[in-house]
User: What shape does this take?
Amino acid sequence: MQLQCALVGNPNSGKTSTFNQLTGAKQTVGNWPGVTVERKSGKYKKDKLITIQDLPGIYSLSPYTPEEVISRNYLQEASIDAVLNIVDGTNLERNLYLTLQLLEMGLPIVVAINMSDLLKKKGIQLNIDKLAYGLGISVVKISALKQQGMEKMMSTAKQSAKKQAAILRYDPRLESALAEIGHQLPADLSEAKRRWTAIKLFEKDPLVTQEIDLTPLQQKEIAETIAIAEMIFKESSDAILVNERYGFIEDLLSLAVIRQEDQRLSISDNIDRLLTHRVLALPIFAFFMWLIYYLSIQTVGTIGTDWVNDVLFGSWIPEILDQWMNQWHVAQWMQELIQDGIVAGVGAVLGFLPQIFVLFFCLAILEDCGYMARIAFVMDRLFRKFGLSGKSFIPMLIATGCGVPGVMASRTIENQKDRRLTVMVTTFMPCSAKLPIIALISGAFFPGRTWVAPSAYFIGMAAIVVSGIVLKKTALFAGDPAPFIMELPAYHLPQVSSVFKSAWDRGIAFVKKAGTIIFAACVLIWFASSYDFSLARVTEDQSILAAAGRLMAPIFAPLGWGTWRGTVATITGLIAKENVIGTFGILYGQTGEISESGNEIWQLLRNDYTAVAAYSFLIFNLLCAPCFAAIGAIHREMGDSKWTWLAISYQCGLAYCASFVVYQLGHVLFEGGSLTLGTGIAVLFICGLIFALVKKPIHQTTPTIQVIGGSK
Ligand code: GDP
Assistant: This one.
């Protein structure tokens, strides 16, 4: 059977390659009459009855370029049995625009998706059955370069030859305008030709408008129809058609194409099913946090910290300084200030830098890969149960770095009551400055117990949850939670540079603080711990600091750590939480020895406190009022002093109660302590807490339904 096939496609879609494959490059090249645009024609090498015409590459059939005019005229006039529409599969949207115009002409078309070898590489999955269904014609995949799919394309072309393609339908309002225009056209036109002419007239195609013979009345009718459509669509008629075609393509592609990003999304969906699972989400999160603390405080980070403590600040720096100061005959008191005050204090704080770096490196990985966003979502489910929204979790997440931006992040919460509540509880999260306290206590008192360090994180969260439940039941904070809408980003591999930068920034901030505020505080602490009120040089026990500490220590005695040193460390922690460690470094490091390693300080600490007392100390310092900078942020966000004082009092009160309960009960349960009045009070505290947790809220959050005209 003789068959005339035409290759039509966008420039660079692979027409020439296809043509050469089909014809064995024995094409005849000729010129189209009138214009110098090349036309190639040849015989299909596997069936010489099939002639293949290669038309110029075109983007559309609008008659704006000579190539477009030639192609259009040829397609209209030559008796073509099948159009082989070569489509670049990697650029479907633009290529299919031409396909739609070919379909509008009512030609028998086979769509050949070329470059199919590149689809996989570009992460595009194409369902050609769906594409064929949507277009109403046959679609095949080919690769002209790899010589794939050529025979299938030709056999499909043979089957589809001379069969008119189904008519595509656009927006019904446009279709009715096209039908109106169609009524004005000569009666002898075929349905396909009528529709195509109507489309061209609607587009105000100059060639068709010129060629078609219409009466002035018909022209007027058509012009009116177009004007009405333009009014309805609020666009020019050609723009209406362009939009309709692209709209059609968009719908079609959303049906038939899966891109890798979409696939990634579905992989994300599957991971999410596990990570945000109703039951498993929290245990998985707990495991990740445990792992992070384990890595940073117990293993990887510790290697660095041991080196900084034992080698850098334990021997190198003190020895070098000692040499220099002796050479320069520095006064004795100055030598002591530098060694026992600054090196011991600032050194104790800086020692934790490697652990902080590892912790933030791990947290940044969780954040960068998209996991933390899921946790906000999981927390929303949990928080919502007690009336807070997941929005409150974001400030808390930020507060794991530093309480100041954490408190400031609460601004995104519109509801004032929720915002105040969030500001009040956000700093319960352990920030980077509290990390050294956690590391010191877990290292000195709980060696090998990997639960101790992450427990600080969970105590912080538990304090937030419990506070949320209890405070939401008070008139001050009652109310429905704000809706929480958050877009969950697709999971992706964390970027090393951004993760490293995040950890680096935290580390630098920590070092800067150690070099400024902690440095100044260490000088003051050393002074107050070396002199008495008459400014005479005394031992630590007779110093100003000891006197002040002893005055306040009884307050903390019920918590198990009411020594003057523990008291002073806690109070200096208000300036900056790192000071707790700086103070310990100075007070427990002053033994006259120059090289004071971490382990020796640990031993001295163990002489002063029991393990339960140390844990109670940790809890108090974790939950009590934050540093001055964070208190300032709380004041700014609360807007007045009354609320700020309320927040500080609440934080200190909760810290005291939690510490008290832990020490009083822990001492009896784990350290063989005898039952005392304190034990009874601790039990009462717990009962009170349980009551507050289960008590009915004063405000019913579920709406009450009023039945109009109901009885009573
Ligand atoms: P035309 O402008 O439509 O005639 O396209 P050509 O046949 O000249 O091809 C344009 C470019 O695409 C050339 O570099 C070809 O090598 C390349 N090409 C054509 N078909 C394929 C294919 O199936 N796979 C790949 N990877 N490249 C192709």
Remarks:
- The longest helix spans residues 641-671.
